[in-house]
Amino acid sequence: MIITPILASGALQFAFEKATTEGKLTIGALLVLSLFSWTIIITKFRQLYIARRSARKFFAAYLATRDPLDLKRREADFTGAPAYQLYLSGANELEYHLQNRVVTVNGERRVSAGSFEAVKVTLEEAAAAEAMALEKGMIVLSTAVAGGPFIGLLGTVWGVMETFAGIARANSASLTAMAPGVAGALIATVVGLLVAIPAMFAYNFMVTSVRGITQELDGFATRLATQMEHHYVDHRALAEEISEANGVLADRIVRALKPEDRSTTGGSPALGVF
Fold this sequence. Notes:
This protein has eleven helices and two strands. By secondary structure, it is mainly alpha-helical.
């Protein structure tokens, strides 16, 4: 209802028809920028909506578990949630070390503190990668916000310059001679503002949303690393590890000895070895 009187007046159409070739090229460039801008706006709104919705489901499922690897082992799917992608990266790295560099403590699989450093690095890299994925394309919006009005202003100044140059050549300074050229020049600024204003509101909203999700990712990465360390990292003191290794070695020697050798050593071969 608001746009109809504006279009009905024919001001935009008249101004575009009176615009110079340079002005029309400027308007064309602004329309291309607007097309890219609106593509990013629609895509990012959809991405952020899915990310928020999937993240809520993922966090609810994760908080309901005790084992930090439970969701991975159940093959739960929360596609679209950045925190879930971070979780998968950390869980996959931890599973690799549990299978290839395992430390057995009281019959349970553990990893060394050195191996867990690789898991923490993976979590940090995944958090950075997800943050970059969320920010992808935002440069187009910032360009539209900062560059749109200036591109339009360039077209306007160029059009006014052409108008005054034409008036000077025709030796006519009447308002009737100036008005069409000025109107054709001003439409470039109007289009530039129409490109920049929606991009500005969308950019501010998206930057705030991305910053919130990024902070949420950093917090979750820290919490996940702490829980993984609590459940799967071997924190025994070095003396305890050496003592346990000696006990295992002594037990193997006892089993390897013949019955007569075992009786000769008094059943305590470990005392003779260590």
